[in-house]
Amino acid sequence: MTKFEVAEISTAQVLKTAHSWFSLYKQGDANTIKVVGECPNDGEALKRLIQFTYSTMRGQVYLNDKYQVIRNEIGKGMVHLSIKTLNKTHEHDWRDYQQIKNELVGPECEGIEIYPAESRLVDAANQFHLFCWLNPTYRIPIGFRHRMVSENTVGNSHQRPFSS
Prior knowledge:
By secondary structure, the chain is α+β, with helices and mostly antiparallel strands. The protein has helices at residues 11-26, 30-36, 42-56, 94-104, and strands spanning 5-7, 60-63, 67-75, 78-85, 111-112, 127-133.
């Protein structure tokens, strides 16, 4: 995986996404209607969906050979990393995410991925979210206390080599 470089999401990409949402709105998609709210006309609905799309794509954009990441500081010393593969698949590689967190937040900063209550679920794309603390001394009060890393076979557990 290559290093990340600063990038931009084009206006054309934002508009394409907003128009996709608008198509769902016109088809009566309940979630999209909830985002838009009551609208006097389609023009206002599209305007709200464009604003919504921009709001979901705010933050600093980074690209490498495999991922697009939007890094957004969300206050209280935290960062939200919105991660998706460039080929738009559902691939979710833990080691890649650890490297993304290390590179874009810091190697000693901790982050979490939340599996939320259904009432707070966001799942409209093959996109994943890490929420990270900026303080490198903060430790989430759950998880392991010591480092244990290996690429060797231990018992029946087979690990792939680090070089892949």
